[in-house]
Structures are given as structure tokens and as C-alpha cells.
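Q: RING-type domain-containing protein, please. Structure only.
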Amino acid sequence: MDKTRCGCEKIINEKDHVIEEHKEVIEQHVGALEHKDVQLEMKDREVEDLQRHIRSLMAELDRRRPGLTFSDDEEESSAASSDSEQRCSSMSRSSSSPSDSDSEVSSPDEFPVASCKVCLVKPSQIVFLPCKHLCCCERCAARLHGKNCPICREQNLGYEKVYVI
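A: Structure for RING-type domain-containing protein:
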């Protein structure tokens, strides 16, 4: 009986030792997780600070350029479409008028790259997907991601930069 009792106590002691080792490993993992939580909270605060900084920079940009506001999609699209209509009508008027010389070759300056339909300043370099309208600069396209195309009002699911030569 004593042998059995000694054998059982030995097994119990071994298992207690294994349990203690596992507790130490678990405590180490818990410590590592707590450290990761602290790091994650610091990163979250950093992201929030950067977002606040971006908002303040955008507000400063809006103050410096009062004609550019990105808060209302309807105003953007109506301004863009009215600008497009004006350009089209002026192009059709100029193309319908007879030229003085039919032998003249068109210079590259006669075919400028279309300007951005949102800010009206930078050249259009972005094609919206899926509608494939070439209508915005990179900055404006980034702000319109997930919103509607300013030309056809179809939802913008993405965009690609194109190079017009």
C-alpha cells in the first residue's frame, strides 16, 4: 500500500510541477498580450492625432481656397456638369466656325488635357471604375472614393491613374 501511495504522490507532484510550468507560460503570454494592448492603444491615439491633423490641414486648405468645398456631392456634380456643358458648347461653337486655312496642322496646345471636374485646377488623371470616366485629379479622386462619379453619378468602386501623352 505504501508503494502505491508513494507512486501516487510522485505522479501528483509531477502533475503539480507541470501545472506550475503551464501557469508560468500563461502568465508570460498574458503579460505579452497586455503589452500588445498598450501598444495598440498608443497606435490608436497616434491614428486619431493624425486624423485630427489631416482634418485641420483640410480645413486650412478650404479656408485658403474658398471655391473648393468637398462637403456636398450635389454642388460638386452640378458645378462639374455645368463646366462640362460650357466646355462642350464652346468646343462645338469653335469647331462649327470655318477655319481660315484648311492646310494648317493642329498644334498640341489646341488639345489640352481636360482639367479636373471637381477642383477645375489640375489635369484629369484618374479613371473611375466601373464607369471609366476620366474626370478627376488624384487628390479629388481620393476624396470621392466610394462616392458617386461627378459625370454619370454611378457609384465609384475604385479608380486607376492614367497617363495622357
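A: Brief note, in case it's useful. Helices lie at 2-64, 73-96, 138-144.
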